[in-house]
Amino acid sequence: MAYDNTCKFLAETYPEEFANWLLSTTDNTSIQVLKTELSLEPIRADSVTLLQTSSQILHIEFQTQPKSTPPLDFRMLDYYVRLKRIYKCDIEQVIIFLQPSNSEMVFKTEYVDKNTRHRYRVIRLWEQDSAPLLNNPALLPLAALAKSNSPESLLQQVANAVDMIEESEAQKNISACTQILAGLRFDRNLINQLFREEIMQESVIYQDIIQRGEQQGKKQEALQYTMRLLNRRIGNVNSEIQQRINALSTTQLEDLGEALLDFSNQNDLTTWLENNS
User: What pTM does this model have?
Assistant: First the structure.
């Protein structure tokens, strides 16, 4: 997920650059980033970015792997319908695949059902010309994954372009994003030779990834501890209850750890989940 989140960070930090690239437009006077949680059943996907221009919405979906539940083509239809209902404007949808794959989904550009056909765009980065990406600092991290007869030379070009970025904070963040995404294609030793590690460690995106990892680690510890207490208190829980517990936040797990001391059976657990989930 770090790769997808890195792309999301880039698109939301540099919305004009991504809109210009994907929409071939220079109308960037009123671009804003929209929230990624829509009405009805919320869609929460860290890799999704929604950019609203003066005349349309650009929906970008970054994918490392084509496998998805529900499938990607259906997700694009689902998003389109929800966005259309809320914003009532033109919607351009683009899936950007980061890593080469032979999956059929990577080559699909539409969802087809008995009475429905919905089209969207697909960009396979490994087939893209690197030149437009190299010429835009915000797109340099994606350039490392573009088409090239000499990938190592391409990565050197990217590194040189990153070094040319004058604004310090932008250089740190773009360097960090480049190093993260380059890990999909290149050996870590080569990346370390071409980029300065201290710049990456000082970047916002790197700190965010570290923080996410720490938070995930805390949640995992809380989950394991709570499940041990539950098993001792009321015995093994079924898979449906287990899924509901897995979805709890770290704070909720800590609250459950205190509440379960008063449980006598699984009904008590079910009642608590209904009241606190």
Answer: 0.73
